[in-house]
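Could you show me some protein's one-letter sequence and the numbers that encode its backbone in two labelled lines?

___
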Amino acid sequence: MNRPVSCAEYLEFINDGGYRNPLVWLSDGWDTVCREGWQAPLYWQNVDGSWQQFTLWGMLPVDSSEPVTHVSFYEAAAYARWAEKRLPTEFEWEAAAATSSARAPRGSLLEDGRFHPVPFVADSDSANVFQHLLGNVWEWTNSAYLPYPGYDQERGPLGEYNGKFMSNQMVLRGGSCATPRSHIRATYRNFFQCEKRWQFTGIRLAADAS
């Protein structure tokens, strides 16, 4: 998919009973949905039949054209299965970023001062360019946070920071609206536990070549 999944698309998943269908969830994910009572992304509230979300600007209506955010890996994986797609591996994601045109538009980053993802705006070139690979939302991949081949953990503080987190976490790529431009690059690896939702995390889908 050349852009992140939008709120409108994710609402289709919600309205189709996605949070009530165990068949699309990983086992641990379904256990989490049942235990935590998840019905929508974090910070979403259904107010008199209308979805609103709590943002850094306060409560706002959910904008259907914005990328969905504050979703866990479990939700991302469930949505992908529901959509009959999958999440990309981090290696597929990085390959896409490496081949993406330099003119490919970025999403919102920290210096923009929005502190919220910006909507995707289609144009005549949209279908041929990866949109918002950097900025807007961290994108879940289907890759576990593990060392690259040949990695040798240092014995000092840097090695401790990297090495001790390489367990039970999944890789995210691309940065978000809270990421400084100077901090993000196409090769940057972020990582979170599968159930975490507080960060600006979103979804990009992939499919096998037919």
Notes: The beta strands are 44-47, 50-55, 58-61, 138-144, 170-173, 190-192, 201-202. The chain has one domain: 7-202.
